[in-house]
Write a structure and sequence with these properties.
Elements: E1 2-6, E2 9-12, E3 17-24, E4 32-38, E5 45-50, E6 57-59, E7 67-72, E8 77-82, E9 91-98, E10 112-113, E11 117-122
Parallel strand pairs: 2-11
Antiparallel strand pairs: 1-3, 3-8, 4-5, 4-9, 5-6, 7-8, 9-10, 9-11
C-alpha cells in the first residue's frame, strides 16, 4: 500500500492542524493505521493508532486529550486532528499501516510508511 501524508505547516502555539494520509494500492480497511513523529535529533516515536474499523484508538500520553485519530475507509484516508499544539509537537509526522492483529505502538510492526509531513509550532 502506498501512503501520502499531507496537512503539515507552521502554526503558533495553541493552534490546530489536521493531517491527512491517503492510501492507495491495497484495501485500506485491511490495515490498522498509525501516526508517528520524529523531531530533529530524536528517534521516531508513536503518536496514535486506529483500528481497521476505526472503533478503537490508542494515543501516546504526550498527546492524549489534544490529538484525535480517525479514518474514513470509503475515502482510504486516515486523519490526525491536532489541537492545542505546543512547540514540543514540532516534528515530521509519518503515517503508517500495519497488518498486525492488534494496535501497536512499535515502529517494527508497521509494514508501510508515508513520506512524512512537517509540523512546526512556534512559541
Amino acid at each position: 500500500v502506498q501512503l501520502q501524508a499531507s496537512g503539515g505547516g507552521l502554526v503558533q502555539a495553541g493552534a490546530s492542524l489536521r493531517l491527512s494520509c491517503a492510501a492507495s494500492g491495497r484495501t485500506f480497511s485491511m490495515y490498522n493505521m498509525g501516526w508517528f513523529r520524529q523531531a530533529p535529533g530524536k528517534e521516531r516515536e508513536f503518536v496514535a493508532a486506529n483500528s481497521r474499523s476505526g472503533s478503537t484508538a490508542q494515543y501516546a500520553d504526550s498527546v492524549k486529550g489534544r490529538f484525535t485519530i480517525s479514518r474514513d475507509n470509503a475515502k482510504n484516508t486516515v486523519y490526525l486532528r491536532m489541537n492545542s499544539l505546543k512547540p514540543e509537537d514540532t516534528a515530521v509526522y509519518y503515517c503508517a499501516a500495519s497488518s498486525g492483529n492488534s494496535l501497536s505502538t512499535s515502529l517494527r510492526l508497521y509494514d508501510y510508511w508515508g513520506q512524512g509531513t512537517q509540523v512546526t509550532v512556534s512559541s
